[in-house]
Amino acid sequence: MDDEPLIRVEHVYKQYETEAGPVPVLTDVNLVVARSEFVAVMGPSGSGKSTFMNILGCLDLPTSGRYLLDGRDVGALDSDQLARLRNTDIGFVFQGFNLLPRATVVDNVALPLVYAGIGSEVRHRKANDLLAKVGLAAYARYVPSQISGGQQQRVAIARAMVGEPKLILADEPTGNLDMKTSYEIMEVFTRLNGEGITIVLVTHEPDIATYAHRLVRFVDGSITHDGVASRSAIAGAEA
Amino acid sequence: MIRQMLAEAWHAMGANRLRTFLTMLGMMIGVAAVIMMLAIGRGAQFMVDQSIASMGSNLFIVLSGSATAGGVRLGSGAAPTLTTSDAEAIADLPSIAAVAPVAPGGAQLVAGAANWSTMVTGTTSAYLDVRDWSVESGSVFTDADVRSQTRVALLGQTVVKNLLGDEDPLGKTIRIKGSPFTVIGVLASKGQSLDGRDQDDTVLIPVTTAQRKVFGSQFPGSVRFIMAQATTAAAMPSAEREMADLLRQRHHLPDRADNDFDIRNLTALANAAAQTARVMSIMLGAIASVSLLVGGIGIMNIMLVSVTERTREIGIRIAIGARQRDILTQFLLEAIIISLTGCVVGVILGIAAAVAANLLANVAVVITGAAVLLAFGVAAAVGVFFGFYPANKAARLKPIEALRYQ
After folding, report:
1. Are residues A116 and A69 in the same domain?
2. Cβ contacts (< 8 Å) between B404 and chain A: which residues?
3. Is A87:B320 a contact under the CB 8 Å cutoff?
4. How confident is the model at residue B66 (pLDDT cuts 50, 70, 90)?
5. Can you tell me the distance from the alpha carbon of B321 to that of B401, in angstroms, rounded to the nearest whole number?
6. Nearest chain A residue to B13, by CA
7. Per CB distance under 8 Å, which residues of B are interface residues toward A?
8. Under a CB-based contact definition with an 8 Å cutoff, are residues A90 and A167 in contact?
9. Residue A193's CATH number
10. Looking at the whole model, is its pTM more than 0.95?
11. Are A149 and A171 found together in one domain?
12. In this predicted structure, what is the pLDDT of residue A2?
């Protein structure tokens, strides 16, 4: 199984049914991502990259085509199995942080472990360890509204990491942050990637994309560029 | 896991304290209303049942017919057509278990310095069987007493209290309309009758003594009415027919003549009263149940609002691995906690209100475990029933749409 890539997307189509008829969003998308890769996904709004991320995150299923995560065909799984997969194999980091506003920082980080059926003591130990790792050990008892955006995003990263996933999906994680904080967050991602975690990251910002090793560019529901995330490649993609 | 969920439900409810409280209030009022109404209904039913039991079962009362004196009709019981020998004849009918002739009258009682006016009933020992009555102390007069017109008396509790106070009444001599009687027994307490009379305010003496020595009668052996008890409830219609036939024959009534007596089925009247009380009890419960239903709808309403408000939260939970049933359980648990908490408080409020009604307004209340259990069960069912739809709606949210919800 180890030579099997973590992500294998084959001929994926996705269309949404609207009143005006079906609207194609993804057209014949093929992508293979190996373990420990750091992939940046770029593309204009409406190019299908968010839909693609939803499919990678098992939040949505392709209309046709196959998606294998760690060798398992996601299309064949039922909703409970998909939930389990999201819980154990995938960590999400969103643009809007998406923390539970009323729960404390440490409870937010521990939440995925609740659904994994892990006892309260272990949950809190793991959550506190991860908070220490992202430099927020002192803020465990705060609620999200009491800390800054950058800190909230680090809490979200800690939450994504707590289930020890193989894959982290980050949808514009720096979109709501200033430049300096963005770079700090990207340092955290780089460190995690260095520990062997596969990261797929959507971004609009060329600066952020340079942290990745590989660049995938979406235009009109298809991948138009797939290569090294060099400055020139990113600049070319922007043009 | 369930502990964590309870804690989260507690948190979610705490975030909107006033709203949670108001939702619970609906449930509280519903449950309290059901408990209180059932208690009052049961209380009324209990009172009626008790009165019926105190009257005796399968009972007929045979009244003498009306008389006309100088063109003035005197009403039922006025003509002295019934006699003690009629009573004896009725007692021989196979469908009749016991018969007591009754010759009542008001009389002044005197004992030492005390006096008391009450109803003195001349009858036989069978009266106690017919009325399901017994003596608390002493003994009942015998058939021999009746034959020999002995001056002996059984006193009701109210009479004992008013006439003799704390003295031991047995063996005491009291005067009834001036003639001395020996108290041989005290009747057990029977309480109020259906029409509110104090049944303990009475004196029983042998019927013959009443007829000849106390009230005197120009018609020897006549009685005001006869109480007859049928062997079984099923035998009542035939017993009524047989009594009528027997009395017509004994009174030599021609075929076309009206009865000169009147047979009334007391049990039928009592059953009607009991039925009324039962229907009232059910109706009170049903009306109160409506408020329980309204409370349930309140829960559903608030849970729907809560699901909508927390759509994004639900999306986050699904994204990080909550299964549909985790979300369902979470919201259902919240609804159940609200309804159960409301229910517990409602039970307490309901019992308190019933007790208050009893103390302040003197309303008879009976709180049964069954009623409390019923209110509890219904409230729990309402919580699950009305909580399920919103919880299910939450569980079926599509994760990407929920996450995109603002």
Report:
1. no
2. none
3. yes
4. low
5. 16
6. A102
7. 1, 3-4, 11-12, 15, 312-313, 315-326, 399-400, 403
8. yes
9. 3.40.50.300
10. no
11. no
12. 57
Whether B243 and B301 share a structural domain? no
Note whether A117 contacts B: Cβ–Cβ < 8 A. Answer: yes
Which of A114, A118, A162 is most worth mutating to test chain B (most B CB atoms within 10 A of its CB)? A114
Total number of domains constituting chain B: 2
Instruction: Collect all residues of chain B within an 8 Å Cβ-Cβ radius of residue A103.
Output: 11
Q: Do A141 and A233 have their domain in common?
A: no
Task: Tell me if B73 is assigned to some domain.
Answer: no
* Domain boundaries, position A157: 96-164
Name the token pair of A24: 């194609």
Tokens of B30: 């519903």
Write out chain A residues lying below 8 Å of B3, CB-based: 120
| Pairwise CA distance, residues B149 & B163, whole Å | 24
Domain ranges, residue B318: 2-51+272-404
**Domain total in chain A:** 2
In a domain, B252, yes or no: yes
Q: State the pLDDT confidence band at B78, using cuts at 50, 70 and 90.
A: low
The answer to whether the complex's ipTM is over 0.95 is no
Contact A60 B400 (CB under 8 A): yes
Instruction: List chain B residues with CB under 8 Å of A111.
Output: 317, 320
Are residues B275 and B282 in contact, defined by beta-carbon separation less than 8 angstroms? no
Cβ separation A163–B321 shorter than 8 A = yes
- Which of B12, B321, B325 lies nearest to residue A86, judging by beta carbons? B321
The pLDDT of residue B386 is above 80: yes
> Measured between alpha carbons, how far is B53 from B102 in angstroms, rounded to an integer?
20
Query: pLDDT 10s digit of each residue in chain A, 239 long?
Result: 456 899 999 999 999 888 888 889 999 999 999 999 999 999 998 899 989 999 999 999 999 999 999 999 999 999 999 999 999 999 999 988 899 988 899 999 999 999 998 888 999 999 999 999 999 999 999 999 999 999 999 999 999 999 999 999 999 999 889 999 999 999 999 999 999 999 999 998 998 999 999 999 999 999 998 988 777 777 766 54
pLDDT band at B70 (very low <50, low <70, confident <90, very high): low
Contacts of B324 in chain A (CB under 8 A): 79-80, 83
Residue A76 sits in the same domain as residue A145: no
Cβ B4–A87 below 8 Å, yes or no?
no
CA distance A130 to A115: 18
Residues B381 and B289 placed together within one structural domain of the fold: yes
Write down which residue in B259, B287, B312 finishes a domain. Answer: B259
Nearby residues of B332 by Cβ (< 8 Å), 6 or more positions away = B384, B387, B388, B391
The answer to whether residues A151 and A187 belong to one domain is: no
